[in-house]
Each structure stands twice: as structure tokens, then as C-alpha cells.
Amino acid sequence: MFETHTIVELRKKLSVARAENKRVGFVPTMGYFHEGHLTLMREAKKRADVVVVSIFVNPTQFGPNEDLEKYPVDLKRDRAMAESVGVDILFTPSAGEIYPEGYATSVNVEGIADVLCGRSRPGHFSGVATVVAKLLNIVEPDVAVFGEKDWQQLAVVRRIAADLNIDSEILGVPTVREADGLAMSSRNTYLSAGERKAALVLAKSLRIAQEMVDKNIRETAEVERAMRDVIEAESLVEIEYLEFCDPQSLAGVAEIESDTLIAIAARVGKTRLIDNAVVRPG
Ligand code: PAF
């Protein structure tokens, strides 16, 4: 596996691959890999000849009181894991490489970036949109792979790709869960054993929602009440939002008449977790 910290070296390597008519796949990450990341890399590998993975803990997507300083890092372990699934190029830029002296541009997405996590994390999606637009411009992949666990992020990325004429396919991959249902996340490492157990109510409430929809319950208010009852019974978990939306526009819905995204953000102790599912009637 080839590793570089610089855009110039990365582009040089990619221009050789492109001259050989190779398809380029890309998985942008913030590192500290788990099975969810490896699944994205395997999907990229299936669809491309050369797979690039970036590891960059992007400072502009963290708010002033968020976990930038303590975000977990283990480059040695990440390198070995990326190599184990056949990643060809690891791009590990410094903050100065991505945001050099004088850097002054940001990408803002209106509408879909303002709801759900956008309300409680002002500036977050601008940071994500900016770095993803930059990374897509640097790598120019044929296909870029993102997890559906961050459903809103994926919607924002699809929007910027369409709006900024970025010519890469944006592929969403279903959330990878632990055997007990917990959605995989690098932030799960912050959880104590008790918190980790408590966090299972998020996935449980989403399963209950699908069961209710299977029983022809269509009022989101009724499903929401049942979900909140399950989550609120767990004293370590505090809901930040629990919303029913159109999966594409993220506009709120009152009746589950077609595929509906149920998105949750909650604090489990001090850790903020998100989870979601698309429920399908009939
Ligand atoms: O999902 C992530 O890990 C990050 O938000 C991303 C897409 C790599 C941008 O920094």
C-alpha cells in the first residue's frame, strides 16, 4: 500500500492509474477504523481498480465544545486494517496541507444541512461539505463511498456533488451493526460498559418502529411515542432529536405512507450518538 501526506504525490500516483484506464474508488474517513469503515473499503474495491482511503480528522466540522481534541487516533492500526482489505493508496494529509495559510473558502448547503444534526451542530455540515468537496476535487474518483449511518451527511454530499458538478458516483452503504444491534461508530470507544448497554435502546427503538409499521400503524406521532417510551426508560440516554423525514429531502412527515427515514441523535452519558433506519410500509 502506498501512503502519502501530500496532494502533489497523490495526484501523481493517480494520474498513472488513470493513464492505465483504471477506475478509482475513494473512501474519505477520519480514521480509527472499525468494521463499518472496512465494509466501505470492500465496496469501493468491488467497484474500482485502485482504492484511495483518506484519513483526516477535519477540524472545521467540529464545534468549539466538541470532541476534536480527544477524537481517537491510531494510524498504525488503521494502516494494517486498510492493507488487510486491499486498499491501494492511503492519503494522510496534515491540517496545513488541506487548509494552507490564507485558505478562505467554505461550502454551505442550504435546507438539508439546516435540519436534524444541523440544528444542534451549527457549522458542522459546512465543514463536512467543504472538506468533502476538496477531497473529491483532489482524488477525482469514479466512485466515492459513504456510510448510511451518517444519512444526513450522505444527503449533503449528494447535494454538493450535484450542485458543484462533481462527476463522481456517490455510493451509500447500509449501516454496519454489532451483533447486538449497536451501530458501529468510532465514538463507541468513549462508552463505558454500562453506557454501551444503555445505547442499545436506540437500535431497539428503530426495530420497534419497523414492527409497528409492519402492523399498519402509519401515524408518526404514535410510533414516536412508542420509541420515546423505550429510549426514555433508559436513564443514561437523553434524546436530542427523534424525527421522521423524507429520506431524500429530509422534510418532516406526519404519516408513514412511503419509505420514511427515522433519525435519532442522543447523548449516552457524555457521548453523542446517532442512528437511523428507513422504515418501509407494506
Ligand atoms: O464521516 C466522516 O468520517 C467524515 O465526516 C468525512 C466524510 C470523512 C469528512 O470529514
TrEMBL record:
Tell me the domain of life: Bacteria
**Binding locations of beta-alanine:** 61
State one molecular function term (GO).
ATP binding
One of the protein's GO biological processes = pantothenate biosynthetic process
Q: Give GO cellular component annotations, separated by semicolons.
A: cytosol
Q: Which Pfam families match?
A: Pantoate_ligase
Give residues annotated as binding (R)-pantoate: 61, 153
Q: What is its main location?
A: cytoplasm
Q: Which UniProt keywords apply?
A: ATP-binding, Cytoplasm, Ligase, Nucleotide-binding, Pantothenate biosynthesis
Catalyzes what? (R)-pantoate + beta-alanine + ATP = (R)-pantothenate + AMP + diphosphate + H(+)
Pathway assignment reads: Cofactor biosynthesis; (R)-pantothenate biosynthesis; (R)-pantothenate from (R)-pantoate and beta-alanine: step 1/1
Q: Known CDD domains for this protein?
A: PanC
Q: Which InterPro entries match?
A: Cyt_trans-like, Pantoate_ligase, Pantoate_ligase_C, Rossmann-like_a/b/a_fold
**Enzyme Commission identifier(s):** 6.3.2.1
Enumerate the residues binding ATP.
30-37, 147-150, 176, 184-187
Q: What class does this enzyme belong to in the EC scheme?
A: ligase
Active site, UniProt feature: 37 (proton donor)
Note the HAMAP family from the entry.
PanC
Member of which family? Belongs to the pantothenate synthetase family.
Q: Subunit structure, per the record?
A: Homodimer.
Report the PANTHER family cross-referenced here: CYTIDYLATE KINASE/PANTOATE-BETA-ALANINE LIGASE (PTHR21299), PANTOATE--BETA-ALANINE LIGASE (PTHR21299:SF1)
Q: What does this protein do?
A: Catalyzes the condensation of pantoate with beta-alanine in an ATP-dependent reaction via a pantoyl-adenylate intermediate.
Q: What else is known?
A: The reaction proceeds by a bi uni uni bi ping pong mechanism.
> What is the designated name of this protein?
Pantothenate synthetase
Report which gene this protein is encoded by: panC
